[in-house]
Amino acid sequence: MTEHEMKQPRTEHSVPFFWPMAAGIELGEAGLDLFRQNLKFLEEAAEITRPPSPEWATPNRILLDLDTMRLRDFCRDGACTDAVPVIVDAPYAGHSSTIADYAPGQSLVEVLLDQGAGRVLVTDWKTATPAMRDFDIDKYLAEINVVVDELGGRANFVGLCQGGWMAAMYAARFPEKVASLVLAGSPIDTNAGNGPIRKMAHETPLSFYREMVEAGEDRMRGKFMLAGWKNMHPEKQYFEKYLDLYAHLDDKNYIERTERFESWYENPVDLPGAYYLQAIELLFKENLFAKGAFVGLGRKLTLKDVTCPAFLLAGEGDDITTREQVFAARGLLGTPDAEIVEKLVPGGHIGLFMGSHTLKDAWPGIADWLIEKGGA
User: Fold this and answer.
1) How far apart are CA 304 and CA 6, in angstroms?
2) Quick one: 364 exposed, middle or buried, by C-beta within 10 A (0-12, 13-18, 19+)?
């Protein structure tokens, strides 16, 4: 199935950190006031019945059940090799971690295993409960460290979107524990390029994001994000997709694809308020990580401390994480230039992880690279 077949709007399901843009609201006090009124409506609205939660396409077992995540282990036939494990750090930015294992024939996990990676695991991030509201970035880095220690103390990381800056932070904090690093659609230098996310980060006041978190009882609620994504393309979400569905009622494959996508799309996760606001202020507004000034687990993190081989993957049409934000890592990492690979592929943001063409044309080569450089 191609990106087009999934009927996905170009940006609407990948911008949880910048919900006002997704809602189609122009910046300015009048726009912010209107958005506040919409938030109040969402708070008071009754819950709409959602489809079942998305499922994992590939058999797996839960190796660890931590406060922030369930670590899913995809050893085939229950047998793991002694290879350096590959940890796919899924985005913690709105939708389910099943983005890494979306459907049979459309799964990054499946590609990595088919290419010979000995052990593949995925961070299955939990939706934030009220008890998780104060979880910050340090909490997530600490539990990633628990994961790596559980796996023997060294791993390859494949960071997807927001999971990429998290993986890069971990590599900067514990460089000896990271054998190789793949950054796919990952915003490393958030000031690079001239994408709409960069503009939004600098033009929307922090107080506005705090209001959203407060409205969500100290969490960034998935239902707020989902409403924003839909309002970005209301004609598609509330009219056209139902016409498409009606036109394909006799196409069983189309119906099954639609059901699977809706299960994934209609079940966004909630984010802890502390984590969300840190990301907005310190990473997207102040760009502290790229500047070497972000403090993680008690130390300033500098990308110059990351010296492992690195693979940088960007989408030609990606306006969520522009190619400049990804490729800027080349000049920031301490990795020798000869050990850094850049690859630009056709398509947008979500296609980097779920698009059938990218999974067929780009990711097998990345898997081979992981095996060669990281011992996967």
Assistant:
1) 39
2) middle
Judge if 180 and 298 occupy the same domain: yes
What angle do helix axes 29-44 and 206-215 make, rounded to 10 degrees? 10
Same domain, 169 and 146: yes
The pLDDT tens digits along the chain (376 residues) read 443 334 333 333 334 455 444 444 444 555 555 555 555 544 444 344 455 667 899 999 999 999 999 999 999 877 788 899 999 999 998 778 999 999 898 999 999 999 999 999 999 999 999 999 999 999 999 999 999 999 999 999 999 999 999 999 999 999 999 999 999 999 999 999 988 888 888 888 999 889 989 989 999 886 665 654 444 445 544 444 445 544 555 555 645 555 556 566 667 889 999 999 999 999 999 999 999 999 999 999 999 999 999 999 999 999 889 999 999 999 999 999 999 999 999 999 989 998 999 999 999 999 999 999 999 9
DSSP SS3 for 294: strand
Domain interval for residue 158:
61-193+271-374
137 and 158 assigned to the same domain: yes
Q: What is the C-alpha separation between 158 and 88, in angstroms, rounded?
A: 5
**Distances in Å between the alpha carbon of 164 and those of 90, 252, 287?**
8, 36, 15
349 found inside a domain: yes
Residues 6+ apart with CB under 8 A from 246: none
Burial class (CB in 10 A: 0-12, 13-18, 19+), 62: exposed
Q: Name the DSSP class of 185.
A: S
Q: What is the C-alpha to C-alpha distance for residues 65 and 43, in angstroms, rounded to an integer?
A: 31
Could you give the number of structural domains in the chain?
A: 2
Find out whether 315 and 349 touch, Cβ atoms under 8 Å: yes
